[in-house]
Amino acid sequence: MKRVLKFLGYALGVIVAVLLVAIGSVYALSNRRLHKSYQIAVKPVLIPTDAAAIARGNHIAHTRGCIECHGVDFGGHKVIDDPAIGLMCGPNLTGGQGSVTQTFNDDDWVRAIRHGIAKDGHALVLMPSLEFSHFSDDDLGALIAYLKTVPVVNRDRVPIVVGPVARALILAGRIKLAAEHIDHAGLVPPVIIPGVTVEYGHYLSAGCTGCHGEQLVGGKIPGGPPNWPHSRNLTPAGDLAKWTEADFFNALKTGIRPDGLKLNPVMPIAFGQMNDTEIKALWMYLKSIPAASGEKS
Predict the structure, then answer these.
(1) Which residues pair with 78 in a beta bridge?
(2) CB of 34 within 8 A of CB of 116?
(3) Which has the closest alpha carbon to 242: 205, 177, 206, 287?
(4) Contact, 90 vs 76, CB < 8 A?
(5) What is the CB neighbour count within 10 angstroms for residue 144?
(6) Contacts of residue 51, Cβ cutoff 8 Å, sequence gap at least 6
(7) For the chain, where are the E strands, in sequence order?
(8) How far is residue 139's CA from residue 17's CA, in Å, rounded to a whole number?
(9) Under a CB-based contact definition with an 8 Å cutoff, are residues 129 and 178 in contact?
(10) Are 222 and 275 contacting, i.e. CB atoms less than 8 angstroms apart?
């Protein structure tokens, strides 16, 4: 019996040692990725000052998910607080105390939004720049112009803490650091004309890819806590095949699906503030893409 207990004790010790080594490796390797410094040449973007452009920037900020992470006052907002994933808070973007943008010049704004890189060169964890890198220069300039005008909020920043599961998912490629995947030197911002067209719908659909995937087939939302639902398949192979344009409008505007169920709160309500042209164009694009299979919630 003593031999058995002794053997089990050794085995347990080996398992613990292996786990400690594995955890240490995950932490060290993910830390190297998180703290890697990126030195890129930022292509300047004209930041307008006219009222029409600032109004356009306001619309973009409120329909592309900015408030979901930075709060309705842009003073910072808690997005995820989960022991496994970590504490993820969008920072204060205003000019107030605790803001990360107080010392920003125009290039710093472009670097953060379009490239997913902080002023000091490290990769931004929460920033969905894979989606925002597709912004046209006009839209990016208007967005920055608006953000520079928002009222001051004094709110200290809550540092992002990356949890153990999130670190493992980063190493596995399930959580993407935008800075690692954007072709910084090869970025060619599109020149887009708003209208009820497939092309404009495609442009807008970049804002859907963060949750629904690059092919819009849905599935597990990268980096989301375990209690987050899988995103829906937005191709004609998914539920939208049974929807009408009116159903799509109503779901975005009211948060109610055609079957009477509410959209999950994980779905950003900001998209419901898109104008009719944007919703029509997005619907047109989603109906034009090939049907593809994906995970189903």
Answers:
(1) 89
(2) no
(3) 287
(4) yes
(5) 27
(6) none
(7) 77-82, 86-90, 161-162
(8) 52
(9) yes
(10) no
d(CA 121, CA 108): 10
The DSSP bridge partners found for residue 90 are 77
Along the 297 residues of the chain, how does pLDDT read in single tens digits? 666 555 555 555 555 555 555 566 777 888 889 899 999 999 999 999 999 999 999 999 999 989 999 999 999 999 999 998 999 999 999 999 999 999 999 999 999 999 999 999 999 998 999 999 999 999 999 999 999 999 999 999 899 999 998 999 888 888 889 999 999 999 999 999 999 999 999 999 999 998 898 899 988 887 777 788 889 999 999 888 899 999 999 999 999 999 998 988 888 888 899 999 999 999 999 999 999 876 543
> Which residues have C-beta within 8 Å of that of residue 297, sequence separation ≥ 6?
218, 229, 230, 231, 232
**What does the chain come to in residues?**
297
List Cα–Cα distances, 159 to 175, 202, 225, 291, in angstroms. Answer: 19, 35, 19, 41
pTM, full prediction: 0.87
Select from 252, 210, 246, 247 the least CA-distant residue to 231: 210
- The structure tokens listed for 233 are 């398949």
What is the DSSP secondary structure assignment for residue 87, as one 8-state letter?
E
Kindly provide the residue ranges of all beta strands, DSSP E only, lying in 91-208, ordered along the sequence.
161-162
Residue 26 token pair: 């995950």
Strands, sheet with 161-162, edge to edge from the N-terminal-most edge strand? 77-82, 86-90, 161-162
